[in-house]
């Protein structure tokens, strides 16, 4: 059993390579979460207690953003940002913003596999924990907990990738090289 703070899950991505190389170096691909944490959490409840009496159904807007950066050669940080705004014609009921991070160790992972993991799979794994924190923050502000629906991060990643490829292809057709 792993101690807290250590890698809590490992994924071997190459079933053909199941162990250390002859020279003792472990060349098998591996990915694991080192830790997860709240980087920033802001809860604004500017119209309390008046807003608790409002009868109009609030408009809820939820925004997501994913960022990743290399922290060390085999260590990456993925940051899932969530912003939830609830307002009515009477004003802002609440605004909750959170940056939830995960520190991920990656060894012997090709870039074409690392990028989808960092921007699709890692956010999928972090989301349930971020979802609970957001629900608790809204509840602690005096409102019913915000129960965010599950998100298909893999589907969104590949849809965005296809859109970028289509835009690049359209730009290449519109601006062919060699024009004078």
Brief summary of the model shown:
The protein has 180 residues and is α+β, with helices and mostly antiparallel strands. 29% of the residues lie in helices and 33% in strands. The chain has a single domain (30-163), classed as Roll (Bacterial Protein-export protein SecB), CATH 3.10.420.
Q: Mean pLDDT score, rounded? A: 86
Helix content: 25-40%
Ranges with pLDDT <50 over ≥5 residues? 1-17
Q: How many structural domains in the coordinates?
A: 1
Give the H and E element order: EEEEHH
CATH topology: Bacterial Protein-export protein SecB
Structural class: alpha+beta
- Please tell me the CATH architecture by its name: Roll
Q: Termini distance?
A: 66 Å
How many strand units?
A: 4
Profile the largest sheet: 4 strands, antiparallel
